[in-house]
């Protein structure tokens, strides 16, 4: 599975962005997917995850109620809708895929895409 994240950009605080994680490979639809982010000088951290069916989602406390993860297996794409963005959401965002939702909430996920920069101005 190869992943590519895109959709980042510069947005004012309170604004919205939608990130996409596009995957290649027929097996993508049976993989769980997670989003992570890494701010300058900080460790990469978990943001959100979704099961292969879309029936189970997980969120970091810092984004609950503001971010929504979803997927369209027909398009081999997972989305991260980010609303009410804050300057502290500024980071490079990565998507990752793995065999269980527990795995894709950690840095042990098997497949990783390159990151996309999100910058939130105050």
Could you walk me through the main structural features you see in this protein, from its secondary elements to its overall organization?
The chain is mainly beta and 122 residues long. 0% of the residues lie in helices and 50% in strands. The protein contains no helices and 11 strands. It has strands at 2-6, 9-12, 17-24, 32-38, 45-50, 57-59, 67-72, 77-82, 91-98, 111-112, 116-121. Strands 2, 4, 5, 6, 9, 10 and 11 form a 7-stranded mixed β-sheet that branches. The radius of gyration is 13 Å and the shape is globular. The termini are far apart.
Short description, anyone?
By secondary structure, this protein is mostly beta strands. 0% of the residues lie in helices and 50% in strands.
User: What is the count of helical runs?
Assistant: 0
Poorly predicted runs of 5 or more residues = none
Strand-and-helix sequence, N→C? EEEEEEEEEEE
- Main sheet? 7 strands, mixed
Helix content: under 10%
Strand content: over 45%
Task: Round the Cα radius of gyration to an integer and report it.
Answer: 13 Å
Overall average residue pLDDT: 95
The strand count comes to 11
- How far is the first residue's CA from the last residue's CA? 37 Å
SS-based class: mainly beta
User: What would you call the shape?
Assistant: globular
Write the layout of secondary structure elements.
Layout: E1 2-6, E2 9-12, E3 17-24, E4 32-38, E5 45-50, E6 57-59, E7 67-72, E8 77-82, E9 91-98, E10 111-112, E11 116-121
Parallel strand pairs: 2-11
Antiparallel strand pairs: 1-3, 3-8, 4-5, 4-9, 5-6, 7-8, 9-10, 9-11
